[in-house]
Amino acid sequence: MVGEEGAFVLGWDEVLTEEELSMTLKVLCMSEEEFKEYKEQDGWEDDSEEEENSTLSNEALSRLKTPCKKLLYDSVLLTLESYGADLKAEQDLLNNREAYEKLSRREQQALHVRYGQKKILHQLLELVQ
């Protein structure tokens, strides 16, 4: 369901891999009985029109059912723990001109990427609390 990378792509305003995330949340939040029934129906691609027309915007994420929100919340926390430094440490480094200028160009770019990723993840945490 997730693909080779095993990751979902999140943007500032919506989930960019919404089909994969929707399907994954749907399956992971099913009871064992619901999963068996869903699997027996061979319904992996044939979902209702309502689900096909929905997008996972930030607003939609905040309206997910509680089990899905909890799953996303816990997943985001695990992802954030995988980073070496927290959001505040990255912000402090970005604000410290002297320390920032000591970084190589590549390290500066990596810092901006990590900081942006963490900002998006923190935004997601707020949406699914």
Automatic annotation (TrEMBL):
Biased composition (Acidic residues): 43-53
GO biological process entries: methylation
Keywords: Methyltransferase, Nucleus, S-adenosyl-L-methionine, Transferase
SUPFAM superfamilies, per database record: RuBisCo LSMT C-terminal, substrate-binding domain
InterPro entries recorded: Rubisco_LSMT_subst-bd, Rubisco_LSMT_subst-bd_sf
Region feature Disordered, mapped onto this chain: 39-58
Segments forming domain Rubisco LSMT substrate-binding: 4-121
Compartments it resides in: Nucleus
GO MF annotation: an example: methyltransferase activity
Cellular component, GO, one term: nucleus
Name of this protein: N-lysine methyltransferase SETD6
